[in-house]
Write a structure and sequence with these properties.
2 domains; Aminopeptidase; alpha+beta; nine-stranded mixed sheet
Length: 320
């Protein structure tokens, strides 16, 4: 029986679309979504299951929702090595309703479903193929964060979103000098070429998270149809080997990474600078990164990036 008898729960249906989008905007104003986002990031996700997308109603009016995800059709590789993880990517309650009661009803029901499916841990909200934010906004969603902590969700780490104006960006002389030194060691930072394809895939599969490989494969396919371009990918090479890369989509910077054995040489700094330079050349005035940590933020800060939002990434042990 629901803890709050005035609240009833139902799985999401197509008939709920307009009402849900209105509530989402009221409950999570900084992270409101469009119908296009709902379709592409949620409903068409290979792992979407309406039974774990729960809506709460009181007196017939939609007052809350929780979106739970897990691997159903698409394996998540190193993000779910034992197949026992689940994720909450969005949880919202109407501002005039009681978060403690409506939220508790939603969480109790979703966690029970996850347990019945054999899931032993639940994260907020790092589901790799389709998170909206890395976690819970520590400022804008302070009440939600407090509620989740009270419900047994502990912080595993923090993530930052950062933004920068690049309209006047120039590669600093010190970075150009570092690039020259790297070149003397046989390390080159350049635009991706389509003849790099197999070498690039080997690098990604050997060094990058499973979901980054999935995203990049999708982007590489788009090159053939004009939906993505070689200019949007910068690679780092040493001879015939690719040892690092960076990409951008619109003004969204990243992901980018360098093979572990080549880190500590300033390669990432040059890679970041050359990518920002290309973004500016292509007409972008701003660059933003959704998710980074405090260590990487120091590198971003060298190029004018400042913290926009800070999130708590949460985890709960669901038990047996």
């Amino acid at each position: 029986m629901d803890k709050n008898p005035t609240v009833t729960l139902t799985p999401y249906t197509d008939a709920d679309r307009d009402e849900l989008l209105k509530l989402w905007a009221r409950a999570l104003p900084l992270d409101a979504i469009t119908v296009d986002t709902l379709e592409t990031r949620v409903l068409l996700d290979e792992n979407f299951d309406s039974e774990t997308f729960l809506l709460a109603r009181s007196g017939g009016t939609l007052c809350g929702f929780v979106l739970g995800m897990r691997a159903v059709r698409l394996p998540l590789g190193d993000a779910d090595p034992n197949g026992t993880r689940a994720w909450i990517t969005a949880l919202g309650v109407h501002p005039t309703d009681r978060l403690a009661s409506v939220g508790a009803t939603l969480l109790d029901a979703l966690e029970a479903k996850f347990r019945a499916l054999g899931k032993t841990e639940c994260f907020v909200s790092t589901y790799p193929p389709g998170y909206f934010t890395p976690g819970v906004d520590r400022t804008a969603s302070a009440a939600l964060l407090e509620f989740l902590r009270a419900r047994g969700y502990g912080e595993t780490k923090q993530a930052l979103s950062m933004d920068s104006s690049i309209v006047l960006f120039k590669v600093p002389p010190a970075v150009e000098e570092r690039e020259t030194a790297l070149r003397s060691e046989g390390i080159e930072i350049r635009q991706y070429r389509r003849t790099d394809l197999l070498s690039f895939l080997r690098f990604l599969e050997a060094t990058m998270p499973t979901d980054w490989v999935r995203v990049e494969r999708a982007n590489l396919k788009k090159i053939a149809t004009g939906g993505f371009t070689e200019q949007q990918i910068t690679v780092v090479t040493r001879g015939a080997e690719i040892i690092g890369y960076c990409q951008f989509e619109g003004s969204h910077f990243g992901p980018f990474g360098v093979s572990d054995r080549y880190q500590g040489r300033g390669i990432g700094t040059v890679l970041l600078a050359r990518t920002l330079e290309r973004m500016r050349t292509m007409g972008y005035h701003d660059a933003w990164v959704m998710w980074t940590d405090d260590a990487a933020a120091k590198v971003y800060g060298k190029f004018g990036f400042t913290q926009t939002r800070r999130f708590s990434i949460l985890r709960k042990d669901l038990g047996a």
